[in-house]
Design goal:
Elements: E1 2-6, E2 12-17, E3 31-33, E4 38-41, E5 50-58, E6 63-64, E7 67-69, H1 76-85, E8 88-94, E9 102-105, E10 107-117, E11 126-133, E12 139-148, E13 151-161, E14 182-185, E15 188-191, E16 209-210
Antiparallel strand pairs: 1-2, 3-7, 4-5, 5-6, 5-8, 8-9, 10-11, 11-12, 12-13, 14-15, 15-16
Length: about 220
């Protein structure tokens, strides 16, 4: 049985097999090198450059996942099952010892990992990212975190549409913004919330707003 998933505006986005129905084929899952992102900045406020690394870890094998199910060569439900079978854990770490680890759950990876600078004037850069969830929806959210009092603190999140990460090249580009949802314009970061736009004021729909983050407490 095949499920056709509809995106916004009723367009068909994905064709997937129903994972609850056994497959008659036992084709071997095709793997590819799993791309992992990193970003540089002063995230702890010590005036020295830090590096934040993306990790994909398998609790099953107790090892880092270097090669994973290729979404371009397998059905999407096969990719989803592969990561869950690995008991995969997506997380972010500093290049320094004894720093807090930010665990993000079971996911394929990140669409982007962006240093947005010191937006809230607390002496530390903030980081924005979008998680590549193992789901069947193209609705997602951008999360912005700060490293505050030795802990990762979520300062803001807002809705985005994953179509901003579509590309036609053979290799996925590194995204330093999220088109139409998080962009730097005239030296300032602006954003648009895909899920929570105000429909009370029709003229405000789709408008990019200035990004201003509160300091963590």
């Amino acid at each position: 049985m095949t499920l056709w998933l509809l995106g916004c505006a009723g367009k068909t986005e994905k064709k997937v097999d129903n994972p609850s129905i056994p497959k008659t084929s036992d084709k071997k899952t095709k793997l590819h090198k799993l791309e992992k992102l990193f970003v540089v900045g002063d995230f702890d406020g010590d005036k020295k450059m830090d590096t934040i690394f993306q990790h994909n870890y398998s609790r099953l094998t107790k090892n880092e996942i270097d090669n994973s199910a290729d979404p371009l060569q397998n059905e999407w439900d096969t990719v989803v099952k592969w990561f869950f079978d690995q008991d995969a854990d997506l997380y972010l770490t500093f290049n320094k010892n004894n720093q807090d680890t930010l665990h993000l759950g079971t996911a394929q990876g990140l669409y982007c990992l962006i240093n947005i600078g010191d937006n809230n004037d607390d002496g530390k850069d903030e980081v924005a990212f979008v998680i590549d969830y193992l789901d069947f929806s193209r609705l997602n959210s951008c999360k912005i975190y700060s490293f505050c009092n030795d802990k990762w603190i979520l300062l803001k999140q807002f809705g985005i549409f994953e179509g901003s990460f579509d590309f036609t090249s053979d290799k996925a580009p590194t995204f330093d913004n999220i088109k139409d949802y998080l962009e730097k314009q005239n030296g300032e970061w602006v954003y648009r919330d895909y899920l929570q736009e105000s429909y009370d004021k029709q003229e405000g729909i789709g408008k990019m707003l200035m990004l201003k983050l509160a300091r963590c407490k």
